[in-house]
Amino acid sequence: MHIRPRRNRRSPAIRSLVRETHLSAADFIYPLFLHDSAEDMPIASMPGCTRWSIDGLVKEAGEALALGVPAVVLFPAIPESLKTPDAAESWNPEGLVPRAVRALKEAHPELCVITDVALDPYNSDGHDGLVERSPEGELIILNDKTVKVLCRQALCHAEAGADMVSPSDMMDGRVAMIRHTLDSESFEDVGILSYSAKYASGYYGPFRGALDSAPKEGDKKTYQMDPGNAREALREAALDEAEGADMLMVKPAGPYLDIIARIRESTVLPVAAYQVSGEYLMIESAAASGWVDGKAVALESLIGIKRAGADMILTYYAKRAAEWLR
Ligand SMILES: NCc1[nH]cc(CCC(=O)O)c1CC(=O)O
Ligand SMILES: [Mg+2]
Q1: How far apart are CA 27 and CA 61, in angstroms?
Q2: What single DSSP character describes residue 166?
Q3: Neighbour tally for 62: CB within 10 Å
Q4: How confident is the model at residue 211 (pLDDT cuts 50, 70, 90)?
Q5: ipTM of this predicted complex?
Q6: Spatial contact of 165 and 192, defined as CB atoms under 8 Å apart
Q7: Closest listed residue to residue 270, CA positions, set 166, 173, 193
């Protein structure tokens, strides 16, 4: 036997020379929850995560930034009393997200602040778009009317100082319309990180608990993608690229590594992947039971997503993983 692959695994030094994929804090986007309260509140449905006050958010983002995490994405919990069928709070310039963006950019100008563009936190129906009922009583998620609201929301975030907006709603045509709106208001430097292939996933359950944003009725299958589909993801990604997206996203990440790999091969744009709340919680709960080594499994899950082709990863582990990788 003269060929022995194990020679390349003999020592940490040799293994580090031949390692094909590297994970670093610079790969991470840190999703952060916030609410309009002076208190930071642990999230029952997502142990290890917090609903931050604006002050707490600024401090947490600063700590992550100091560890090398370059970006955050914001998810607001909006009180039931501010939710309406037209989701008007989503474009309130004095709303929670614009105030948080201003506070973050003032404290950490070098931090990349990304905002989520979708209506579910603001919509009394809990859907990502505006809802109408057909004469037969069926729920209809209105595409084009929703896109108009998303444009107002994106503009409001850009005016507050967001570096990028990230539409997570899966309405058709919203990237082009948001791009047009931002450009016509002189925000041509504000980027769009588009959730291009976002699947109708059971893995979002804990997140909806964290924000009380679950749909009041029905599901999201008329806008989020069917988990069985891969070619359709390529179509969605190509459309978002043609509409002017700066980065494309696949979500969830772990169960969709093939989609990440195929989109990676189909475009030269940067590809992001979102390790969602259910993926995070499966690791956390197994670790809390002592069934797996949480740190080892979390880092392995992240390097797997990177190896599949993601240039960046949205992960609730961002800050902890940055610490582990230091
Ligand atoms: N616009 C909704 C949105 N944005 C991010 C997530 C899920 C993130 C996670 O589970 O971590 C969701 C939930 C959903 O689509 O129902
Ligand atoms: Mg689309």
Answers
A1: 15
A2: E
A3: 14
A4: confident
A5: 0.97
A6: yes
A7: 193
How does strand 164-167 pair with strand 112-117?
parallel
The b/e string for 15-49 (b: 16+ C-beta within 10 A; e otherwise) is eeeeeeeebebebbbbbbbbbbeeebeebeebeeb
Backbone angles phi, psi at 4, to 5 degrees: -130, 95
User: Looking at ligand 1, which residue's alpha carbon is closest to its atom 8?
Assistant: 276
DSSP 224-238: SBPTT-SHHHHHHHH
Domains and CATH numbers, the chain: 22-325 (3.20.20.70)
In tens, the pLDDT along 44-61 reads 999 999 999 999 999 999
Q: What residue type is assigned to position 150 of the chain?
A: L
CA Rg value for the chain:
20
Tokens in use for 294?
Answer: 């949480």
Nearest atom within ligand 1 for CA of residue 118: 1
Alpha-carbon distance of 48 to 129, in angstroms, equals: 30
Probe residue for ligand 1, chosen from 114, 128, 316 as the CB with the greatest number of ligand atoms within 8 Å: 128
- Assign 27 a pLDDT band (cuts: 50, 70, 90): very high
The answer to whether the beta carbons of residues 9 and 15 sit under 8 Å apart is: yes
Pocket test for ligand 1, best of 168, 196, 217 (most atoms within 8 A of CB): 168
Task: Tell me the three state secondary structure of residue 43.
Answer: coil
Say what the alpha-carbon torsion angle 197, 33, 124, 127 is, to the nearest 10 degrees: 10
Per-residue model confidence (pLDDT) at position 153? 98
- Contact in structure between 161 and 154 (CB atoms under 8 Å): no
